[in-house]
Structures are given as C-alpha cells and as structure tokens.
Amino acid sequence: MNQSKPVVFVIDDNPAVRDALDGLIRSVHLAVESFGSTDEFLRFKRPDAPGCVVLDIRLPGLSGLDFQDEMAKSDIELPVVFITGHGDVPMSVRAIKAGAIEFLMKPFRDQDLLDAIHVGIERDRTRRQAAATEAALQRLFDSLTSRERQIMLRVASGRPNKRIAAELKLSEVTVKVHRRHVMQKMKARSLADLVRMADKLLGAAETA
Amino acid sequence: MKPRILRAVTSASLLPAVTIAIAAGIFVADTITDLEIAFPAFYTAVVLLSVRFCKRRGVILVGAGCIALTLLSDLLTVATGASGVGLINTLISLLAIATTTYLALKIEDEKAGAYEARSQLAHVARVTTLGELTASIAHEVNQPLAATVINGDACMRWLAADPPNLDEARQAIARLVRDANRASEIIAQVRALTKSSPSEKVWLSINEIILATVTLIENEIQQNKVSLRTELSEDAPSVQGDRVQLQQVILNLILNAIEAMNRSPQEWRELTLSSARNDPNGLLVTVRDSGAGLAPENLDRIFNAFYSTKPDGMGMGLAISRSIVEAHGGRIWATPNLPRGAVVQFVLPVGVGS
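Above: the input entities. Below: the structure tokens describing the complete assembly.
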C-alpha cells in the first residue's frame, strides 16, 4: 500500500494555471489530478496513496482558506500548499496556523513549489504509515477475546500473574495460558513490546 | 493671437464692499429717523450677506458690530426724544440681529459638514472604483503570466531530463505561447475599455468646458485657498470631442495642481488655466501650478498607469487623461514651472471646417 505512487491534487479555477501546474508536476514524475473547483475535488474518488493538495486561495464559492477548514472537518488529512495571486500577511498566517506546508505568491519559483509538494507528500506518507500501523494493531487487538483483552491490559500495566488471577477470580495457570495466547495473537516479541502496543492502543482510544 | 482675460475668479470680490455700504446706509437711516421706526431690523440682511464671505468668527463680529451700531444710533436719536415704544422696537431689533447671527452660524456649520461629507464620499468612491478596477486587472493579467512562467520552468525540466522529453517540452511551449497571448489580449481589452467608452464627438468650446469645470470645483479651490487665474483666448478654436471626457481631463489636471500646492505657503498657491490657438490648426490648453513641482526624471513617467508621485496616489488620473487626449488625436506633456511648480499642457487637433 505504501508503495503506491503519490498523487498531487491541483485545485485552481484558472485553466491556464491548472494546465501549467499539471505539466510542471508531471515533469518531476509525480501523478497529478487537476480540478477547477473544490466540489470537483470532493466528488473525485481519491486513490489510496500518499498525496498533497495544491490549492488556490481565490476560488469560486468557498475560498481556499475556508476549504482548508472544511477539509479538516471532513477528515481529509492531505497536506495543503497554497498558491495565490494576491495574498497578504493575515491570509498566510491563517493558512500556516491551520497546518499548510507553504504559502506561495504567483508567480513563484518552480523549485519552491516542488519542494513544498515533496515535503507535503513525505508528511502524508509518514502520517499514513502511522495510521496503517495503528489500524493493524487495532485489528490484532480486536481478534482477542474479551478475557484476553482484560488480561493484556493488566499485564501491560505491570501487574503480576498472581494478582491478575485474584482480580479476575481465575487460577494463576489459566492466567498464564491466556497470557501466552495474548502474546501470540498480538505478535508481541517480548513483554516490553506488548506494553508499547497497549500504550499505542490506549493513546489512540484517548485521541479518538 | 490676442489672449484676453475673460474672467478672473479670485477670493476678493465686491461683496464685502456692498455689505459695508448697506450697513452704513442702515445706520444713517436709523439715526435720522425716529426711535419708533425699527430700522435696525434691516441689519439682519448685513449678517446674512456676511455669511457669504466670512468665516465663523467674522460672522460673530459682524453681528456684534450691527448691535453696536444700533445702540450708537439710538444714543444719537435719544437726544431728539425717547419713548417706551421706541425702546421696545430697539430691543426687538437687537433680538432679531442676535437670532439671525445665531441661525446664520448654524447654517454655515451645516453647510461645512455637508461639504465635508460630500467631498469625502466623492474621494472614497473614486478610490474604491479605481482600487477595484486595478485589483481585478492585476489579477486577470497575473494569472496567465504566472502560467507562462510555470510552463517555461516545466519546459526546461523536460529538456533537462535524460533523455530530453521533446514532446512534453513542445507542449509546454505551446501552452506558454497561448498564455502569453492571453495576457496581451487582456491588456488589449483594458485599453479598448478606456477607448471605446461611448464617446460623443461634438463640436466644443474648450473655454466653456474649462469654465464649467471650474464651477464644478469652485468649493475645492476656495477651501484650499488657491487663487485661480483663467486666461482663455477668444480665438481658441473649437474642437471635436467628447465633452465628458475632456472635462474629466481638465478636472484631473486641476485636482492634481491643487493637491500639489496644498503644502505651499498660501501666497504662493496660484493656479493658471489658459487656452490658446496652437499653430497651425490646433488647440493648446495649459494648467500651471506653483506647487511642489516634479523631479525632471519623473516628467515622462507621471503619465504611466500605476505610477504616482503622491504617497497615496493610484497612478490612474494622468494615465486616464493621456488615454483620453490621445483618443482625441492629441498629445499631453509636463514641464517644470518657474520659479516653482509644474505645467501640464495638452494639444488637440482641430478638425476640418473649424
């Protein structure tokens, strides 16, 4: 999955600028999808690949800055590179505060745009990898029985088998058997590994 | 060519003299008639006249003076016999003068407020329209220019690839040419916009236009304490042109001149508008001010769009003026004035049959 070719999404209402950006980005061997409006972009079925959005500030309907907020609300986590013909300081501050990679004034240096796009793609790749690892971990955790989950969380919090047995009114032997199953199912190589997994799962549960 | 001064509009006029004469007349009449006759009531006319040429303080002084004159003539009349009715009449007259003075001051304040508001509004409207126009033209031209630059960059990258991708490079150049053409089309449209604005070409007297424009901004001239001279030659030929557009040119030039002088000492603020026949068959209009003047290196650039020597200038006024003058087949230029200030002149050709 992480091998899929990154895609750059260009959203600019000016066809000339759109075509030109399309050519420039393809010249560095990146895939490009261009859109004349944010609606077109939203209707497009995005491939499962790391990506980056090149967004014009002045767009028909929603402005680029407002669309950035809109993306955050609808869980589109693609990094954004802004391009604009007439930006000002408050605009750029707002964009960068909301997590934009760059805020470029037209006409800009091609290298500046390509650098920003690469930074964006790298950031998205990292985010996607973290998300993928987390999802895989969650799948493993979901494969545990409820008893095993109880035991895993107690083991991870550092409690000895004897105490877990007492808490759950089980025999110590039974706890040991469950514990071995947990280690196998979670593919944990060591206790420390399991503790780390539990931390991630709890962290994800908290932020979710 | 015999230039003749047709009219001189200056702040000095006959009005103060007339007013003083009326006041004197009332004083004499009041003194020689009986106290019973309420002649002093006519002083209200003096107060009302003074509003035309006096500031606040002046009007108050005139009011006070009228009251003093009333009392003085009463004292002189009392010798010939006083009565209760006369005293009441005097009181009523004094009250009338005081009330009129008060009302005159109120009216003056209102007028000043209204003038202020109107000129601010006009300024805002002018700046906003020009500002919007400029921003949208800039945006429209910037888009294809940005695309041109990106296409050029992309083309270089396709050529630098190993092996060079000539097909992609060619496509990028094709887009580049298309976008550059688009930019120049937009400029052509803007130019057409200023030229093709429905112009009514009729035979016009430039002197009439100059005087009409002066009337339009007489307030502005007085507010800025500028003394204006008009030297309009009687044998200035008629020209064929658009009245509104030519008036716009003259208005722009006068407003610029006034603005250039608003930091000069008051006694220097002299604006001269003149018209003359220009050999062999043309018309020359000159706007001469005694303001800050222009640096010699700026004389050519001031007519460029978006170029301004004023800190908050849009750089549109003279550019528009030039495009209008040129659309009329004329020419406009600026030279330094001696000892100070600037001279802006334009010539218009006089068509056949003038």
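Note for the figure: Chain A has a mean pLDDT of 90.
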